[in-house]
Predict the structure of DUF6402 family protein.
Amino acid sequence: MAISEAVRDTYASVMRVVSTEAATTAQSSEACLRNFQLIEMPGVMVGMNAGVGARLMTRWFNSPSFVLPSSWRSGRTDFRAVSRKRFDTGILKMSWLTGFARARQALSHLKLQHANTCSIRI
């Protein structure tokens, strides 16, 4: 599993927890949807000890819109050439990511692949 897949899975899990909690604490799911604004989600996430997800959502809400170029989606782009302003290294940290067993497993798999690839070249 790639690191981006592990991050995406973690984000999806957090989002399921947030939406489940909001739906069960409201009198009805309709009332929840009628009164709940999407921009309130980071505050809810902070209250649920999901601070990293809250910071990611806040950054997303506060950033200008951006359409991912098709060449990026296809994987034909050398990401070393992408402008540094497109990267945020302040929110997601490896120390946070490795707090999840699936992420540690994915990283171990990547390290093993890398080690095997390096040994083949020698």
In short: DSSP finds seven helices and no strands in the chain. Residues 3-64+91-121 form one domain. The mean pLDDT is 78. Helices lie at 3-25, 29-35, 41-47, 51-62, 70-74, 94-97, 101-121.
